[in-house]
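Input chain follows. Return structure tokens only.
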Amino acid sequence: MRRKPVVLVPACNRMLGAHPFHVAGKKYIDGVRLAGCLPLIVPSAQPGDLEALLDLADGVLLTGAVSNLHPSHFGEAVLDTALPLDPERDTATLPLIPRVLARGLPLFAVCRGFQEVNVALGGSLHQAVQNVLGMQDHRDDDTAPLAVQYGPAHEVFVEPGGLLAAAGLPSQFTVNSLHGQGVNRLAAGLRVEARAADGLVEAFSLPASATTPGFNLGVQWHPEWLAAGNPVSMVLFKTFGVACAAFRDRHRVPHYEPDPDQ
């Protein structure tokens, strides 16, 4: 029996009491399992560890997080010092992304991970989308129950001819919305896959090429939330899982030359 595809899940960094911990949300791990893959949580990798870790991988999932990407990575100062940051995660994930793409490893990026991909490839973010003229407030009410925070928030509109359309998703569907930061300048080469009604980019991909040959998709919403009961989420995770299995089969399964005497 072939082993399940291995998906790296880079961890966030938290202080729990007086001690630092590497953490990853269970809902993301459950999403990887729904994709038919084996999750492997990765603590903040040292630069010399990246290639060895990627040698183990058939895919990478970049999760959402309570923290924001530090704006110094796109040339800005921190606008709101009350918002949490995770510079250790920035240091681990930003150099990871180009390596993942160059190897052709399938990449699925959610919320913070979506923003990391845009910045790692040279794009920038709005630090407070709600303060941008013409934009909606995409934040949740963090005093509300989780079912409300992660409940349906707004429509997204799928661009024709992209990955989402090819996956058979409808031309528009409803998503949750729990973010203050959002795409400002889209990195060169990224293709918009979906937008919100206010024009904010909600999904993108980097079209396959000789230098970036693999499946990749970033979404601003949280498809991992109650994914098993959400048809759109299931399409996304299953599509990711199929790509990871295909990578495994191309790179991990040994190919034997036939014995001419048999």
